[in-house]
Amino acid sequence: MRTQTLAAPPDPLTHGVHSSLRLPADLAVLGFVRSALACLLTREEWPPEAACIVLLASNEVLTNAIEHGSPVGAAVEVELSVTEGWADLRVVDQGVPGRAVPTVPAEPPPPSSERGRGLLIISRLADELTVRPQGRGTEVTVGFRRPEARPATASERTARRAA
């Protein structure tokens, strides 16, 4: 088992949004999850550049779970949490018999390699990455710190909720 933590998340904020989904392990769900996460990031007023980083890495995490960690007919669990200063994504697949828990490679694959870059890309984009076994499958958790996040004032939070 290999767990890699790139940075500790900040103390959790009392505000934000959270969503838990159980979806078929089918690449057709990628757009739905990306849209849901984009909505959460927009609601918490993440800057577009930071939101794009979260969306790119999250797409890689979910794609890996579907393509490499899920047998036909399986489901994946997805949890999204976004506050004004931190975003988390947790994806759990059901596992494929005979496949080991993936690890972040120390070096990129050769340029001619068609695969093997997903976890490396995620590790470079995320502030926190954990990969560990979960039941028969794999749990991947990624966390992102919003650049130069500042706590919202009480009036800003109230105005945002009213919108």
What is the secondary structure topology, with strand pairs?
Elements: E1 17-24, H1 30-43, H2 48-68, E2 75-82, E3 86-92, H3 118-125, E4 128-134, E5 137-145, H4 154-162
Antiparallel strand pairs: 1-2, 2-3, 3-5, 4-5
Protein model, in words:
A five-stranded antiparallel β-sheet has the order 1-2-3-5-4, covered by helices on one side. Mean pLDDT is 86; it is low at 1-13. Strand 4 (128-134) and strand 5 (137-145) form a beta hairpin. Helix 1 (30-43) packs antiparallel against helix 2. Helices cover 32% and strands 24% of the residues. The chain has 163 residues and is an alpha+beta fold. It has four helices and five strands, in the order E-H-H-E-E-H-E-E-H. The protein is globular.
Element order: H for helix, E for strand: EHHEEHEEH
Distance between the termini: 45 Å
Q: Classify the beta-strand content into a percent band.
A: 15-25%
The largest beta-sheet arranges its strands as: 1-2-3-5-4
Sequence stretches where pLDDT stays below 50 over 5 or more residues: 1-13
Q: Report the radius of gyration as a whole number of Å.
A: 16 Å
- 3D shape: globular
Strands, count: 5
How many distinct helices?
4
Average pLDDT confidence is 86
Helix/sheet category: alpha+beta
The largest sheet is: 5 strands, antiparallel
- Give the % helix: 25-40%
